[in-house]
Write a structure and sequence with these properties.
This protein has 160 residues and is mainly alpha-helical. The protein contains five helices and two strands, in the order ααααββα. The protein has a two-stranded antiparallel ribbon. Helix 1 packs antiparallel against helix 4. The longest helix is centred in the last third of the chain and has 21 residues. It is globular.
Amino acid sequence: MEDQKEEVAQFLSHEFPQLIKKLPADAKPVWGLMTPQHMVEHLIVTYKMSIGRIKIPVISAVEDHPRLKAYLMKDSPMRRSVPSPTGKNEPQPLRSSSLEEAVDKVLKETNHFLNFVKEQPEFIADHPYGGPMRADEWLCFHRKHIKHHLIQFNLLADYE
């Protein structure tokens, strides 16, 4: 797991920033309703969930958590157009004044999260599908989730 954590941290700290900075404000998604700025702001919210700053109820059954957590942590493509666990499937109101501002914020959140994982790898926050997950488990989820959205906007080739 230690090697995998280093590989994931490398992706989040180096590859992801290079790719997300290439996202044009007028890019059209391959699937879904989000604009580029909506997607970036969605990633910010997900980072905040993983360190306990935002809480969303767990909607999966406890007996499904081990299987779902294993899927969420695996470096493989996610299903497209996953329904929001909050039931709000339309894009949420934008919080940043521009895509550029949102990208700056997501990169700050990325760095904050990477430092958080180093300092508190055993911290537990609920994932709406995977249930309670340690910070180092969220690390692997973030790679999967971010790749999913990079693929959504043609910034990364689909894989597997």
